Structure of CBS domain-containing protein:
Amino acid sequence: MHAIAFSDKRPIVLPMAVSVLQVAREMIEKNRFHGVLVDERSSPRGVISIRDIAKAIFIVGEEGIELVEAGSLGKILENPCHLYASYPPIVASSDISLEDAVELMVARNIGCLPLVDEESKLVGVLDERFLIKAIPEYARVGPCDIASWDVLWVEPFEEILASVGYMLSSGIRRLVVRLNGEYRLVSLVQVMKYVVEEGVLGRLLRGERAPLEEPVEKITVKPWVVECSYTLKEVSSIVAFEPTGAVLVFDREGNRGPGVLTERDLLVALYQELKSRER
């Protein structure tokens, strides 16, 4: 089976000169974590992620994570996005098989794979959040087998800025927050959505830091919760449309939870499932 059958139906494909702010807003609007940058020939020249954008505007200072100075923030957001993208991008032929595409993405630890034709023009984009829909109905493992149980927590009263620091320093995109007896998630997507809001962005550009000193509970979302009885097929369908790209998992029998199950966990599970069927 060709991988292109599972390509993203609404990928973010933009010219290299588009501003960082425009890319961020399009990612938030389309609920995507990656964008593909193309040249005038429609050939992929880079891939930019929501993490790349966050790393561009938040820096590690002597006293921890900080937003760049107000004057620099405006310039960065106006800069062409290719300055912060990963390039040259890893690409694959449009006729690559599903098995080879998944293996490539897992091996290179990437969540987005542009597909090109014989003229190197972009013809499709594989995004891990939608590629995981290829997980078969009867996979060998369930959500409790592949969830991460050693999760990173943050208190609801922690500042938004501190939470960004935890995510960027740990190389993760989301944190668990316990708020009023229920579990919630905060991710880099929610952070960027908050930062580029007109009112908040205006204050940040004027040099105010108060918006980022707000408690992180302000930008948390209530995620989908699954149990061991769910199939990976069911979970993959949920994750594809969850704003955070993850679900919380509870193992009632084993008295474990919450665990976190992400699109990357499911991509690895798909890879292992496909490899097992080759034997």
